[in-house]
Amino acid sequence: MPQTQRAVRQVVFVDGVRTPFGKAGPKGVYAETRADDLVIRCIRELLHRNPQLPADRVDDVAIAATTQIGDQGLTLGRVAALLAGLPKTVPGYSIDRMCAGAMTAVTTTAGGIAFGAYDVVVAGGVEHMGRHPMGEGVDPNPRIVAEKLVDPSALVMGSTAENLHDRYPELTKERCDAFAAASQEKYAKALAAGKFQDVLVPMAARHAEKGYAVVTADEPPRPGTTVEDLAALKTPFRVRGRVTAGNAAGLNDGATACLLAAEDVAEELGLPVRMRLVSYAYVGVEPEVMGIGPVPATEKALAKAGLTIDDIGLFELNEAFAVQVVAFLDHFGIADDDERVNPYGGAIAIGHPLASSGVRLMTQLAQHFEEHPEVRYGLTSMCVGIGMGGTVIWENPHWSGESK
Amino acid sequence: MTQDLTALATELFPDEVVTKAPVQFFDLPGHSGKFALITLDNGFDHTKPNTFGPGGLVQLGAAIDAVEAAAENGEIVGVGVTGKPFIFAVGADLKGVEVVKNREQALAIAQAGHDTFKRLSALPVPSFAFVNGAAMGGGVEVALACTYRTISSGVPALAFPECFLGLVPGWGGCTLLPKLIGPDAAVTVIIENALSQNRMLKGPKAFELGIADVMFEPVAFLEESIAWAEQVINGSVSVQRKEFGAEEYAAAVARGRQVADSKVHGAAPAPYRALDIIEKMATASDDEGFALEDAALADLIMTDELRAGLYAFNLTQKRAKKPFGAPDKALARPVTKVGVVGAGLMASQFALLFVQRLQVPVVLTDIDQERVDKGVGYVHEQIGLLQLKGRLNQDQANRLKALVSGSLTKAAFADADLVIEAVFEEMSVKQQVFAEVEAVVREDCVLATNTSSLSITEMAAKLQHPERVVGFHFFNPVAVLPLLEIVRAEKTDEASLATAFAVGKTLKKSCVLVKDAPAFVVNRLLTRFLGEVTAAVDEGTPIEVADKALEPLGLPMSPFVLLELVGPAIALHVAETLNAAFPDRFHVSPNLAKLVAAGKKAIYKWDTGVPVIDPEIVELFEPGTSPSTQEQLRDRALKAMAQEIDLMLSEGVVGEAQDIDLCMLLGAGWPFHLGGITPYLDRAGVSQTVTGHRFLAPGVASLPE
């Protein structure tokens, strides 16, 4: 009998890992490391860390990359699954929603789990911005210009951040620099406290002249950065502008992956439950101010969950640009230095290898949940190129029930 | 030392492809401290593996200087050595051995390896080899010098090829391997594998033997190796090693000597030197072992046997892949269908080989359905056996079986690009077959013959297109022996010849271009040589004396065992053919003819495991009254070979003496230490005596003068 009625299943976040992030470019730690190898390493480590999961129970592998060319092409999810040692019976595919690639890999496969098509999936993303600079091989439709559909600045992410400053004059460069310096400081503290040890996958990286090394730490952070240092930086997107290399995420190489499962299957297999998926939403905004995307996305996700912003006790917001995070905080009436926001620092310090970042946010939120049983709900949110925002709301399985 | 070595590198070996050894320092993932990782990398991809010449040793020495200083300052907790992608290191650069001019230089190179490698054992922190890819000889010895080893399950080859070439593993191999994995396993790796056509170990087998402490999959080999190293360093993992007693050493070395005797019959010094060192390691210290290795290497590098071995190695590795005198590859025509005339055993073996390698339709024809069915059935059965062995999966087996068919009419060859005949060895029959084939095939279809003794020019003479005929002389067993003599007849054109070479290469054979001359190369030389031995027996030399005469050469088998393998009837037939062509030089033995007439297949009976001369043979033979001694017969046989080779070269049967040697190495299995045969004839002075000149200039396959 075909099943005509079904219950939606709970989706849980089991485990997440990432490679240490590197600086893109010829001097970066991954300058001569293949992008697919980065994400293969993450998938491999997930299997290694969760031996109670039979590899053939993985129902799909969704891997995101923005530039799906060369070592980020060839139906990356499938190829990476094969090369990571998953059985040939495990399928895979590729996903692209620019910066929200890995986030979309999670929400799309989560939909499949909820529907009953999957029990366990691997979702992740990779971006090697050294090998594949943003915009590599793009061919924008001439109608975009001819019909003035979108301001040409919409395709330059830094320019969209400057546009956001224009829209909200109260978001000053000083606030953004202060937020950026705090991000570096929070990261340094978290690092010193050993917060990244359990989520980082050591990655062998070869350099033709220097030989092999095993990368065990993030390369982008600049500990000790002060607002004075930041004030002195150039504004590459606009003369006398506000967006600098210091108050934005850099160009980075890195990969992430996570395991998701139906809650009952996690129980059956003895897999840990680190977060429970509550709702998610993606919303389009004007591409020229793509940084505002998280605001309507969060409102939509909250509405779907029947929650308000006051129910959210922890935030992992992607820091593509300080200005878009601050715009989000202003909108929801949250202070720039609220300790619920990005407690370990964010992409300004850690880096933002585009399509991989969504799962980094989730992995860190899962860590915060463990440390904060008093918090019931948290969210991960990010702005997305071509004018979008994406938000995923999660419930803390460790919630003690004492407060919200 | 470094200065001397740098000087030696510049003086001796300015063209060395230097393997560099950069060092990177990084924090261990579990925060146990800093680790130093040395990467061996010559800057090329995996097709040009890392090797060690004097320049490479200087580089590794400098890397060890850096890690040693860091270790002494307490900056690091461990040291690792790994290779470039797919390659760890494949040992000493053989070109660097060829250029050594005197024993002092040889000794300096031997000692330089030890002086460098042993520092890896003496660091104040543990050292680890992460064997990520192919490792041979000196590469394995770098790993043995480390305190611990990890190996990738994807390692395609790990071996000590030294004894195969004429050396000993002399940078620590003979000393350290028996202590690590036990003398018996060490004898297997160093002696038995090396002397069995240089057999190699794959990663899992090397791990099983204990060469590595732990094995990881290639996908995360280096990361997991580093994680394991960290566990060893912080004490959460400890490695137990076995000890081996004097009896085990004695038994292993005795077995090793038996193996060496059975393979080289005492004629090559290297395996015996290696066994001498292994034997001493029952009680000797590492440094004593290293000193023995230094002396052995210095001695062996200055032997003609080694130089002949290196020459032979280069022939089989390089010349065999680029056949001398072959036409431009671009002239080759594609072969999309193959016809085989005949469906007997030889024809069926051809069909199997062609379908397996070319993966195109292969049609067998014969005179009645029963034979055709039997031929096709044989090929299908063999494909089934390959499937059972796991060499083919079901789909591949289905594909190959479907490609093989039989036909009673040669019309099935109409769209073939190559037709090979394997019918009765009789000129008129072969001419008839080719005429029938020509009537149905396209005019550019290549016609190949597997004749071993008939004139291919004559076979082609009556055809409308004789330019399409080539000889394809395989060696039995066709699937196993690597040599293919490709024969150019008088009118063979370049395109047909190029097609033949392209097919030969796809068949994975080593092809040698030969002229259409009686019995080509291998059979002609073996027959000349057997002719001298049988003549000596006919004259009254006892069989057992005659059969031992060539033992000092270390040939793979004695003349009469060879006769048995070839089959006395075939040997007689080839002798008669050659006698007809060159009656002065090729002896047809009346005793051999009697043996064939009596239906005898062998001289020896093997019932007891050791060969005993069949008493019926002794009855049958009518010996003469002027016996030779072993020395006399050896002298005579070697002189005959020198004369025959000289004639073959002047007739242009092959381009150069190197091709004769390549044929004898690959077609007759003659040993590396003879260099095939011409280096030995030069070395023994036989070529000079017989022909007034050497076959090869001094230094080509011998010590430089």
From TrEMBL, chain A:
Keywords recorded for this protein, A-Z: Acyltransferase, Transferase
Transmembrane segments: none
Listed CDD domains: thiolase
Source superkingdom: Bacteria
Coiled coil (residue ranges): none
Domain (Thiolase C-terminal): residue spans on this chain: 274-395
Pfam family, one: Thiolase_N
Ranges of residues in domain Thiolase N-terminal: 11-264
Keyword flag Acyltransferase: yes
Family: Belongs to the thiolase-like superfamily. Thiolase family.
Protein name (database record): Thiolase family protein
UniProtKB/TrEMBL annotation, chain B:
Pathway where it operates: Lipid metabolism; fatty acid beta-oxidation
Keyword field: Fatty acid metabolism, Lipid degradation, Lipid metabolism, Lyase, Multifunctional enzyme, NAD, Oxidoreductase
Reaction catalysed by this enzyme: a (3S)-3-hydroxyacyl-CoA + NAD(+) = a 3-oxoacyl-CoA + NADH + H(+)
Domain 3-hydroxyacyl-CoA dehydrogenase C-terminal, residue spans: 520-600
3-hydroxyacyl-CoA dehydrogenase NAD binding domain sequence ranges: 337-516
Pfam families: 3HCDH (PF00725), 3HCDH_N (PF02737), ECH_1 (PF00378)
Family: In the central section; belongs to the 3-hydroxyacyl-CoA dehydrogenase family.
PANTHER family: TRIFUNCTIONAL ENZYME SUBUNIT ALPHA (PTHR43612), TRIFUNCTIONAL ENZYME SUBUNIT ALPHA, MITOCHONDRIAL (PTHR43612:SF3)
Protein name: Enoyl-CoA hydratase/isomerase family protein
